[in-house]
Amino acid sequence: MRPTVIFDLDGTLVDSRLDICDALNRLMASRLQPSFTLAEVTSFIGDGVPVLLQRAFSARQLEQDPAALSDFLTEYEAKAAERTRPFPGIIPVLDELRARDWQMMVCTNKPERAARLLLEALGLCPYFSALGGGDSFPIRKPDPRHLLLTLAKTGTSANHAVMVGDHHNDVAAGLAAGCQTIFCRWGYGEPSDAPGVRIAGAPAELPKLLEDALAGMVPVSSK
Ligand SMILES: O=C(O)COP(=O)(O)O
Ligand SMILES: [Mg+2]
């Protein structure tokens, strides 16, 4: 079985903060509410759009109206790749992993349609053999089944997979799923000190860390 890496999307592969911030502020403006700063919006990201909106509305001491989720997604999907770009150094890493025959997947708490639109707009789709979005299944990260169900799309088992993400939800899901797990320091999350987690300071460190993680797995031939 090919070694597999499951990437988180926001804060790991792409810096998406500006477009999320802009979409949220357009939604807030439509509700006659003042804008949030980029730092505030960044602190709302990580648990999917429904939770982002809960955090935003409760920060304004407002009840969330029933149209908020679909209005946000309309705003976001229209301009998801306006200012969002892969983090510097990510594309060379994806090219190197592809050349080394790693299978690559994305497991994100961003809703699947928005994630797919973004990956398409940035030309990233061809790298990935599966995508599990925040609304693809009844559960999402930190629930490990989000990773397991994404892996299952290609019949891959967790003991051939490494989870790479920037948020404690990624680390929790990776460890609970039985995957080798790498935390990325360039993203939006708080640093992880969970035992057994490898830490990447920059994308260029990923190929070596992934090879180390692979060496830490039970040999593929004996599984
Ligand atoms: O949509 C979010 O809140 C976070 O998305 P991510 O899982 O790709 O980081
Ligand atoms: Mg993330």
Automatic annotation (TrEMBL):
Family that this chain belongs to = Belongs to the HAD-like hydrolase superfamily. CbbY/CbbZ/Gph/YieH family.
Gene Ontology molecular-function annotations = phosphoglycolate phosphatase activity
Q: Return the protein name.
A: phosphoglycolate phosphatase
Give the organism the record lists.
Answer: Teichococcus globiformis
The protein's UniProt keywords, in alphabetical order, are: Carbohydrate metabolism, Hydrolase, Magnesium, Metal-binding
Q: What EC number(s) is this enzyme filed under? A: 3.1.3.18
Q: Which reaction does it catalyse?
A: 2-phosphoglycolate + H2O = glycolate + phosphate
> Domain of life of the organism in this record?
Bacteria
**Enzyme class, first EC level, given as a word:** hydrolase
Per its UniProt record, the required cofactor names are: Mg(2+)
Write down the Pfam families for this protein, in alphabetical order: HAD_2 (PF13419)
